[in-house]
Amino acid sequence: MVDQSQARLMKQIKFLKAQDVVFWFVGLFVLAGAFLILFALIYDMAQTGIPRINQEFFFNFPSRFAGKAGIYAAWVGSLCVVLVTALLAIPLGVATGVYLEEYAPKGWFSRLIELNILNLAGVPSIIYGIMALSLFVYQFGLKQSILTAGMTLGLLILPIIIVTTREAIRTIPNHIREASYALGATKWQTVSSHIIPYSFGGIMTGVVIALSRAIGETAPLLTVGAVAFIAFLPTAPVMATAPYVSAQWLMDPYTVMPIQMFNWISRPQEEFHVNAAAAGIVLLSMTLVLNALAIFIRYRFRKKYKW
Amino acid sequence: MVKNIKAEVKNLTFSYDKASTGRPVLNSVSLPVHEKSVTALIGPSGCGKTTLLRCFNRMHDLYGSVKYEGKIILQPSGFDILSNEVDPLEVRMKVGMVFQKPNPFPKTIYENVAYGLKIRGIKKKSYIDDKVEDSLKKAGLWKEVSDRLKASASALSGGQQQRLCIARALATEPELLLLDEPTSALDPISTAHIEELVGELKKTVTILMVTHNLHQAGRASDFTAFMYLGDLIEFGESSQVFTNPKEEKTENYITGRFG
Ligand SMILES: Nc1ncnc2c1ncn2[C@@H]1O[C@H](COP(=O)(O)OP(=O)(O)OP(=O)(O)O)[C@@H](O)[C@H]1O
Ligand SMILES: [Mg+2]
């Protein structure tokens, strides 16, 4: 028999409330600590770096003189590499996610693949670099090119895109699929007019977060040979004379933002460290913009569908 | 009441698991479905009503290895729905279905009704427009939505959504319309609406309807089939089944002694 007396009940409630307060404080404390550390890091970098950021910094190539050095090659390189990454990883990742959710028969085999993809998402990025070095650089003979870098990062973020695509698709209730099939729709008709449109927001959120991770990756690109000192841009993709378009840029050497940073920070002179901090601020802004975009997309689409 | 037979279930035995050797979920069920009338499937929970209904449009095929034995013949063509040579897509093109929970697509009202036509490759705008209007009228929804066809279907009430789902199924002119407890998620007024609608629709379509509500079966159906544990116990005109059942199990069920 439970003791139901009023006094006991009040005591119990008081205890539970105290418990709530304790956890509230613990949570707040941890959160505040994390914020403080993050803020201190950013503040430190911003204080050193922001005064260095001006137009020349964006449009100068690296130089022996810290004051003249800029990030032109680095941000153009980053954009080119991310473009290749996106073009490879988005179609492949989304298609794989859709296949695994909607087409693949559910059985031990698809579970095995699922497990492997989850594991791939956890493999350290340097391992991807080493694999890409032997496969893309040596086997395929792609050298230290933008294409190699884009493919390497594409592989790296592929599992993220696959996993987020699958999660986005899983939020679509089954009765929507059944409604479509019951009308006589094929799998592809169901996927193209329902599954992909309804999960588009979730998929894009995952894609943008994956790309923002790709922009900041350093280790795998060091292994596949990003060059730190580049004083020219990749070949222009369009030109004034026939054949007007060129894919030569894919095979050009490159550098990217984090590698430029890494290069500057490893020099002994203090002035280069200022450059590194400034480049860090630019890189951080790039990823923040992407993350904000992801939040925006998620917010827009979450409101759109209520099942 | 003399009606032509639209569909005929012949000795249908069904299991969800191909390898299963135990008791099948449907056990040698045979049942006629009369043309342009409403046939109600009743029986206690878990007796296999939904399972039987979903055989009619091969819905089970979406979920892997199931086992059908027997036939469901569509008349007058003699088309066997369950035949291995028949593509489930072809079946679903001929047989429409409305589900227990209203499940409109999160698209516009117009797009919902037009979807069945779209996937059949029909592109002619004027034809689709006419068909959408016609189906919405048949589903008794036209008056309420004619001025907002481009509005999202999710904004409709539950009862309106269910009528939209009926309109969506009607747009493709199915030979047979399956309803799985179409009113169980609705309030009494919407339920009355749908029942009225079913009475209207049977002038043009053949309807097979699962229901838990015996009053509904009594009111809205011409024929009633009573199922129990995967067996078809009794089939007859509703007036007869409800007033003068031949089987003791049927009588116990409709008088509320079990189920
Ligand atoms: N997907 C499935 N896989 C395996 N067994 C199933 C599946 N769906 C239903 N069953 C089983 O088949 C039997 C009949 O289920 P069914 O859903 O057809 O019953 P029902 O008559 O529609 O019941 P209710 O009135 O509760 O909707 C039940 O014993 C159920 O457990
Ligand atoms: Mg059921």
Plain-language structure description:
The complex is a heterodimer of chains A (307) and B (259). Chain A has helices at 6-49, 55-59, 72-103, 108-121, 125-139, 146-170, 174-182, 187-216, 219-223, 257-265, 270-304. Chain A is mainly α. In chain A, α3 packs parallel to α6. Chain A is globular and about 80 Å long. Chain B is globular. With 259 residues, chain B is of the alpha/beta class. In chain B, β9 (223-228) and β10 form a beta hairpin. The chains are: A mainly alpha (307), B alpha/beta (259). Bound molecules: adenosine-5'-triphosphate and magnesium ion. Adenosine-5'-triphosphate is lined by residues 16, 25, 43, 45-51, 212 of chain B. Adenosine-5'-triphosphate binds at residues 16, 25, 43, 45-51, 212 of chain B.
Can you summarize this structure?
The complex is a heterodimer of chains A (307) and B (259). Chain A has 307 residues and is an all-alpha fold. Chain A has eleven helices and no strands.
* Rg of Cα set of chain B: 18 Å
Low-confidence stretches of chain A: none
Q: Architecture of the domain at 5-102 and 173-254 in chain B in CATH?
A: 3-Layer(aba) Sandwich
Query: Sheet bearing the most strands of chain B, described?
Result: 6 strands, mixed
Please identify, by name, the CATH architecture of the largest domain in chain A: Orthogonal Bundle
Largest interface by Cβ-Cβ < 8 Å:
A-B, 23 and 25 residues
Count of strand segments of chain A: 0
Q: Just give the CATH class of the domain at 5-102 and 173-254 in chain B.
A: Alpha Beta
| CATH domain topology of the largest domain in chain A | MetI-like fold
Give the SSE order of chain A as H and E letters: HHHHHHHHHHH
Kindly state the percentage of residues in helix of chain A: over 70%
Assigned CATH class of the largest domain in chain A: Mainly Alpha
What percent of residues of chain B are in strands? 15-25%
Q: How far is the first residue's CA from the last residue's CA of chain B?
A: 29 Å
| Overall pLDDT metric of chain A | 90
The radius of gyration computed from the alpha-carbon positions of chain A, rounded to a whole number of angstroms, is 25 Å
Task: Work out the oligomeric state of the chains in this entry.
Answer: heterodimer
